[in-house]
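Lab meeting notes turned into a lecture example. A postdoc, R.K., suggested we walk through two folding results consecutively so the class can see how the record format repeats. The first protein's sequence and structure tokens come next.
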Amino acid sequence: MSIFQDFLYENKAIGGFTNKEFKTHFEYRVSEGNAPRQGDWGIQNGFEHEIAVCDGSVRFANVKKTVAYVLVGQDDFTGELIVEKWAIKHNWKRAEAA
């Protein structure tokens, strides 16, 4: 099952937002530590959410009201996490997730 099916059919998505810079829509859920390719790595590194991406994997993130801090990689030499700050606009959010 793809991550999109998991988000949509198992009703795990807790919200959706648009990246203001690129006008792309994403849905996200609370990280359960069972990401398809990464397991619980995100939780171990302080990321509360998983954002569904097109290749069937997730990006770990901390989604706030107007910004999302999204893990986009890890420096090959230093091992430091590369985190981008995305300006976002929430399109929807589940009431119990507020």
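The second example is placed directly after the first for contrast:
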Amino acid sequence: MGWFKQAPALPPELAQAISSHGRLLDWASHSDGLIAITKNSLVDISGGVTTVTSWTDSLQAKWEPPQLTVIFQGQSDAKPSARSWTLDAESQLPRAVRDRVTSAVVVDRVFELPNAGKVRFVARRDENRTYWSAISDDLAASQSEIGQEEIAKALVELRSSFGI
């Protein structure tokens, strides 16, 4: 009897789904299917539907066994979306998720701006560059001329203070 438990074989449908999304870091079964963590993406197969989400769209992750929740917001998304999976409480997958989110999100700050409302500034890094997103809760205020000026000014100050 060995000391280490042998990992189960990767299911063929998951192997096919992750083939073009970078090196596999970890995978697990969840209550409705399979989930894989690759270097570039989170791959979820639920109910026969495959969803691939880049780590550069991630904002944060939370592990409260047995529930894993990852919050995503792409550059063109108006609001963040949370996706959750029920995993085995012994799963090591949440560690891989934390590592990927931490490597993608460099800065995440929320400011209340007088004329633009609450704005989340996120600096994300991919393999080639770091880019900033300004995500406002009040789209109308943030799209006004004064709102855009406040956001631009806050972004310049953040970039300067973080050197990004």
